[in-house]
Design brief:
The complex is a heterotrimer. By secondary structure, chain A is an alpha/beta fold. Chain A is built from nine helices and twelve strands. Chain B is α/β, with parallel strands linked by helices. The radius of gyration of chain B is 28 Å and the shape is elongated. The relative contact order of chain B is 0.09. By secondary structure, chain C is mostly helical. In chain C, 75% of the residues lie in helices and 0% in strands. Chain C is built from 14 helices and no strands. Classes of the chains: A alpha/beta, B alpha/beta, C mainly alpha. Chains in contact: A-B, A-C, B-C. At the B-C interface, helix 1, helix 3, helix 6, helix 7 and strand 8 of B face helix 1, helix 2, helix 4, helix 7 and helix 8 of C.
C-alpha cells in the first residue's frame, strides 16, 4: 500500500462538555472501501465532519495528503474530497441536471462560468450512473433510490479522490443498498476512489467493504477485515446485545445476527 | 386628513380593468435548444421557454398600446385665455385663493387633491412628493406653487424647476396670518396685487366682524374642540389656523397641546368641551351618522348634553383658503349659541 | 448563462422602449413637435429608467435573499430595510433631526432613508449573528422583530406629529411610488450602488447555487458559506437600501420576480439572477407606464403611485404562470 490519502491520529472532540470522540485514529488509502460501524450516537457522523474539517478536533490531527485539513483551501479541498450527508437538501423544483451541475462548484471560474469541460463531466457521470433519462426531471418526482443516486452523482461530478458518506443507505431498500454498495466498490477498484462510509448494516458492510472500523462511545473498538471485526464477542459488547455468527454454506463473508433465543 | 389621502389612494384601484391581455402569454413548448446543452444531454425546456418570453411580453405591450389608442385624449387644451405669468399650483389652498381672487386665468395646472369644479378641468400634475415632470415640462408654467416646510424643499425639486426655468413660490398655510401672507405673495407673484388686496381686505373685514365685542363677552370663554378626522380622535391643538380662527371668534381651544393631536376617549372626556366642532369636509350621510353616534357615546360631555355638537360637511372646512371667513362664521355661530346657553342654562332645559 | 444575460437585456430593452411611448398626458407615441420632444422626452425616459433601476435592484436582491435565507417567502424588505428607511425619512421632518436636516438640506430625505435602511439591516445582522455566524432562521426572526419595532416607532412619531402626515410626503413613503423630486446626483448614486452591487452578486451567482443547501454540503462543495451569506446579504441590502431611498417600499417585485424567473429559466442562480433582474425592471417599468396611462385626464385624472399597480399586474401574471406550470407537471406523470 502506498502512503495513505488520509491519516487521522488521536482525534478528540466534545460538544461542550459532552465528549463524543475520545481517541480515534484511522487511515484511508486510494482504492479502498472502508465502513464505519457502531451504534447510534457513537460518533460516526461527528468523526466524518471532523475529517472534513467542518468541526475542529479538540486534540489530534487530520492530514489529507500530508496536509492538515484546516490548512487546505476550501475549493481545493472540495476538488479532492466529496461528502454525502445523511439527508442531503434539495429544492423539489430543481431539475436533476441542475443538482449535478452544482457538483462542479469547486471548479467554476469567476461569475460561476462553466467551461465545456464542466458540461462534459456532468454528462459523463450521468451516463455512468444511468441518469440521462432523469436529467430534465425535477427532484420532487424521483424515488428515494433515484434521489440518492443523484446525490452520489453530484459527489462524483466533483471528481474527488475520496468520498465520505454518512449512512447513505438510510432511505434505500435492500436492492438499492446493494446496488449503491457495488457501485461504490466498482468506483474504488476501477478509478482508485477512496470510500469511507458510515453504516448500520453490519453484514452488508462486511460484504462490500475492504475494511471495517467499529466505533464504541468515541473509541475504535475493532478494526480490520470483516472476519476480525464481526466477532460476536466484540460486536455484542459494543451493541449490548448477545450476538451469534451464522455460517452459511457458500458465503465467503461471515454473517452476524442478534441472538434472539 | 390621512384618512382622506388614504381614501384617494384606494380610489385609484377602483376603475382599473382586469388585464385580460395577460392570457396571451403562452407557456411555450420547447421550440429550440442551446446546442451545447443538447450535446451534454441537458434539459432544453428552460432555454426554450425563455425564448418565447420576449414575444409574449411584446404582445402584452402591443395590446396595451392598441387598447390605449382608441380613446386617446389630446394634450391639455391650449387655453387661449391663460394669462401670463402662468401658474401650476400644487397646493389646494393656493388654488383656492387664486380662484377666489379672480385670477384663475393664470392657472394651467393644479394638484391631485384639487377637487373643486373650477379646478377640475385643469391637468393635475402632482402633490408634495410626486410630481409629473413630463406634464409640467409640456405645460411649462412660469410659476410653481408649493407648501414645503421651511428648509424642506427637496433639492431635486429645486434642481428641476431651475432646469425648466420655472420659479418656485413656496407658501406656508400653518397659521391664519399665513393665509393673508400667502395672498399677498400670490398677488405679487401673479402681478394681480389689486385683486389680492381686495380679497384679503374682504376676508379680513369679514373675520374681524366676527370678533366678539368686549362688553358681551361671557365671564368664562366657551371651551371648544376642533375635530379633524371622521374617527373623532384627531384634534386641532394650538398654533394652527383652525385654532387662530376659533380664538378670533372668542372661543377657547380645550386642547392645549401645539399642532394637531390624537386623543383617546378618556382624554376626550377629560377635556369637557362646551362645544364640539367636527370637521367632515365632503362627508356623506353614513359618515355623518357615524360621527354623530361617536359623540352620543359621551353623554357626560357638556357639549353633548346641551346639543352643541356641530358636524360641518362643507368641502372647504379644512382648506385654509378663500372660504376661511365662512369657516370663521360657522365657528362663531357655534360659539355664540353655546355662550347664550351658558349664560341662561334654564332656557336650554325648557326647550327640551 | 451569457445567453440568458443577453436575452434578459433584450426583453427589458423591448419593454422599456415600449414604456417610453406612454406619455403622462395620455398621449401614446413620441410627440411630433420637436420643441416639445426636446423638453418633454428626457423626463419620460428618466422615469422609465428609474423605474427599471428600482425594479432591477429589487428583483436581484429578492433572488439573493431567497437563496441565502433559504426561504421562498423572503423579499428584500424582510430584514428591515424598508421600515428603517421609512422611519428615518419620517424623522427627517421631526425634532432635533429636522434642524440638522435643514443644515444638510442638500443631502435630503433620500440620504436619511438610505441611512435608515442601512442602520436597520446593520442592527438586524448585529443581533442575529453569533461570533460572525449567520443562521437564516434566526436572521428572519430578528428581521421580523426589527420591522415590527420600526413600525411601532413610526406610528409613535406619527401620533406625536400628525401634522407631518398632512403634508403628504410621509404618506408617499408608505405607499411606494417612484419619487420624482430627485436630484440627478441622487439618481446617479443609486444607479452606481445598484450597478456595482449587481456585478458583485453576479460574481457570486455560481456560489449562490450552493447557498440553499445545508451548511455542511455547501462547505463540502468548496463554498465558504458564512462568508457567502455575509457578502450576499450585505450587497443585496445596500442595493435595496439605495433604491428604497429613491422610491419608498414597493411591494411584490422583490418577492415575485425571483419566482417568475424560476418558472422561466429554472433554479440555476447564474441564469436566475439576470432573468429576475430583467423581469423586475420590466415589470416595474410596465407598471409605471400603466399607472401613467391610467392616471391621464380622461380616466383617473390624478397621479397613481406605481406601488398600487405592481401587485395588480404581477399578481395575476404570477398566478397564471404558476397555474400553467402545475398543469404541465400534472400532465407528465
Amino acid at each position: 500500500m502506498t502512503a495513505p490519502l488520509l491519516e487521522a491520529t488521536n482525534l478528540q472532540f466534545a460538544y461542550g462538555d459532552r465528549p463524543v470522540l475520545r481517541d480515534v485514529s484511522l487511515t484511508l488509502a486510494r482504492g479502498e472501501v472502508v465502513a464505519l460501524l457502531g451504534p447510534n450516537g457513537t460518533g460516526k457522523s461527528t468523526l466524518i465532519r471532523v475529517l472534513l474539517g467542518h468541526l475542529r478536533a479538540d486534540r489530534g490531527q487530520v492530514l489529507w495528503e500530508n496536509r492538515d485539513v484546516r490548512a487546505w483551501p476550501r475549493r481545493a479541498f472540495a476538488r479532492r474530497v466529496a461528502y454525502l450527508p445523511q439527508s442531503p437538501t434539495a429544492d423539489p423544483d430543481q431539475r436533476v441536471a441542475d443538482v449535478l451541475r452544482t457538483g462542479r462548484a469547486p471548479y467554476w471560474g469567476a461569475f460561476g462560468l462553466e467551461s465545456a469541460h464542466d458540461v462534459a463531466i456532468v454528462s459523463d457521470v450521468a451516463r455512468q450512473l444511468d441518469l440521462i433519462e432523469l436529467l430534465p426531471r425535477p427532484m420532487a418526482e424521483l424515488s428515494g433510490g433515484q434521489r440518492q443516486l443523484v446525490f452520489l452523482a453530484r459527489c462524483l461530478v466533483q471528481q474527488p479522490v475520496a468520498l465520505l458518506l454518512d449512512e447513505p443507505n438510510t432511505f434505500l431498500d435492500l436492492r438499492h443498498q446493494v446496488d449503491l454498495g457495488q457501485r461504490l466498490r466498482r468506483l474504488a477498484k476501477e478509478q482508485g476512489l477512496a470510500v469511507l462510509m458510515a453504516s448500520h448494516d453490519l453484514n452488508l458492510a462486511g460484504a462490500l467493504a475492504d475494511r471495517l472500523i467499529l466505533l464504541d462511545a468515541g473509541v475504535v473498538a475493532a478494526e480490520g477485515s470483516a472476519d476480525r471485526v464481526l466477532d460476536p464477542q466484540v460486536v455484542g459488547k459494543v451493541y449490548g446485545l448477545p450476538m451469534r455468527r451464522l455460517d452459511v454454506p457458500g458465503q465467503v463473508q461471515p454473517l452476524i445476527w442478534p441472538d434472539l433465543r | 386628513m390621512l384618512g382622506q389621502t388614504f381614501l384617494s389612494a384606494l380610489n385609484f384601484c377602483r376603475d382599473i380593468p382586469v388585464p385580460s391581455f395577460l392570457y396571451w402569454v403562452s407557456g411555450g413548448a420547447d421550440h429550440s435548444c442551446l446546442p451545447r446543452a443538447r450535446r451534454a444531454g441537458l434539459p432544453c425546456s428552460a432555454a426554450g421557454t425563455f425564448l418565447s418570453l420576449p414575444y409574449s411580453l411584446l404582445i402584452v405591450c402591443l395590446i396595451a398600446l392598441i387598447t390605449g389608442c382608441d380613446h386617446k385624449t389630446p394634450a391639455p387644451p391650449a387655453t387661449t385665455t391663460t394669462k401670463s405669468p402662468t401658474v401650476a399650483s400644487l397646493v389646494p389652498s393656493a388654488t383656492d385663493l387664486i380662484l377666489g381672487m379672480g385670477a384663475g386665468d393664470h392657472l394651467v395646472a393644479v394638484s391631485n387633491f384639487d377637487r373643486e369644479p373650477a379646478a377640475a378641468r385643469l391637468p393635475r400634475v402632482g402633490d408634495y412628493q410626486t410630481i409629473d415632470w413630463e406634464k409640467l415640462a409640456q405645460l411649462h408654467p412660469n410659476l410653481i406653487i408649493t407648501y414645503y416646510g421651511p428648509g424642506h424643499i427637496p433639492p431635486g425639486f429645486a434642481e428641476r424647476t431651475r432646469e425648466l426655468g420655472m420659479q418656485n413660490v413656496n407658501l406656508q398655510f400653518n397659521r391664519l396670518t399665513d393665509v393673508f401672507e400667502a395672498l399677498g405673495t400670490l398677488g405679487y407673484a401673479l402681478s394681480e396685487r389689486e385683486k389680492a388686496q381686495a380679497l384679503g381686505g374682504r376676508l379680513k373685514a369679514e373675520i374681524e366682524s366676527l370678533r366678539p365685542e368686549l362688553a358681551t363677552r361671557p365671564s368664562r370663554p366657551v371651551r371648544a374642540v376642533i375635530v379633524t378626522d371622521p374617527s373623532g380622535l384627531d384634534f386641532a391643538g394650538r398654533n394652527n389656523y383652525l385654532n387662530d380662527v376659533l380664538e378670533t371668534v372668542g372661543g377657547e381651544n380645550a386642547v392645549t397641546a401645539p399642532g394637531y393631536v390624537a386623543l383617546d376617549r378618556e382624554a376626550i372626556a377629560a377635556l369637557k368641551p362646551d362645544v364640539i366642532l367636527h370637521l367632515l369636509p365632503g362627508a356623506d350621510e353614513p359618515t355623518k351618522r357615524q360621527a354623530a353616534a361617536f359623540w352620543d357615546a359621551f353623554p357626560n360631555l357638556p357639549a353633548v348634553q346641551k346639543h352643541h355638537v356641530y358636524l360641518f360637511t362643507e368641502p372647504y372646512m379644512m382648506t385654509p383658503g378663500v372660504h376661511i371667513a365662512d369657516v370663521a362664521a360657522k365657528f362663531a355661530a357655534a360659539v355664540r349659541s353655546a355662550e347664550e346657553l351658558a349664560s341662561h342654562p334654564t332656557t336650554n332645559n325648557a326647550t327640551h | 448563462m451569457l445567453a440568458t444575460l443577453v436575452i434578459a437585456l433584450l426583453v427589458w430593452a423591448a419593454v422599456a422602449s415600449a414604456c417610453m411611448l406612454v406619455g403622462s398626458t395620455g398621449h401614446i407615441g413620441i410627440p411630433s413637435d420637436p420643441n416639445i420632444r426636446r423638453f418633454v422626452l428626457p423626463y419620460r425616459i428618466e422615469i422609465v429608467l428609474i423605474a427599471s433601476l428600482v425594479g432591477a435592484a429589487l428583483g436581484a436582491a429578492g433572488v439573493v435573499y431567497q437563496a441565502i435565507l433559504r426561504n421562498p417567502l423572503a423579499d428584500p424588505y424582510l430584514l428591515g430595510v424598508s421600515s428603517g428607511a421609512s422611519l428615518l425619512s419620517l424623522l427627517w421632518y421631526v425634532g432635533a433631526l429636522a434642524t440638522i436636516s435643514v443644515s444638510f438640506q442638500a443631502i435630503g430625505q433620500q440620504a436619511f432613508a438610505f441611512a435608515g435602511a442601512m442602520l436597520s439591516i446593520g442592527i438586524v445582522l448585529l443581533i442575529a449573528s453569533r461570533r460572525g455566524r449567520i443562521e437564516p432562521v434566526t436572521l428572519i426572526l430578528v428581521g421580523v422583530i426589527v420591522n415590527a419595532v420600526n413600525g411601532s416607532l413610526y406610528l409613535l412619531i406619527y401620533f406625536r406629529h400628525p401634522e407631518l402626515v398632512a403634508r403628504g410626503g410621509v404618506f408617499t413613503f408608505l405607499v411606494g411610488g417612484i419619487q420624482t423630486n430627485l436630484t440627478r446626483q441622487q439618481e446617479w448614486l443609486a444607479a452606481g450602488c445598484v450597478g456595482v452591487g449587481w456585478i458583485l452578486l453576479f460574481y457570486l451567482a455560481g456560489q449562490l447555487n450552493v447557498a440553499p443547501l445545508g451548511e455542511a454540503e455547501a462547505e463540502a462543495l468548496g463554498v465558504r458559506i458564512q462568508r457567502l451569506r455575509w457578502a450576499g446579504l450585505v450587497v443585496a441590502s445596500v442595493m435595496t437600501a439605495s433604491v428604497v431611498a429613491i422610491s419608498g417600499p414597493i411591494g411584490f417585485v422583490g418577492l415575485v420576480c425571483p419566482h417568475l424567473a424560476r418558472l422561466i429559466v429554472g433554479s440555476d442562480q447564474r441564469r436566475l439572477l439576470p432573468a429576475a433582474t430583467a423581469l423586475g425592471a420590466a415589470l416595474l417599468a410596465l407598471a409605471d407606464a400603466a399607472s401613467r396611462y391610467l392616471s391621464r385626464e380622461s380616466l383617473l385624472h390624478t397621479q397613481m403611485p406605481v406601488g398600487v399597480l405592481t401587485g395588480l399586474l404581477g399578481g395575476p401574471f404570477f398566478l397564471l404562470l404558476l397555474w400553467q406550470n402545475r398543469r404541465r407537471t400534472e400532465a407528465t406523470p
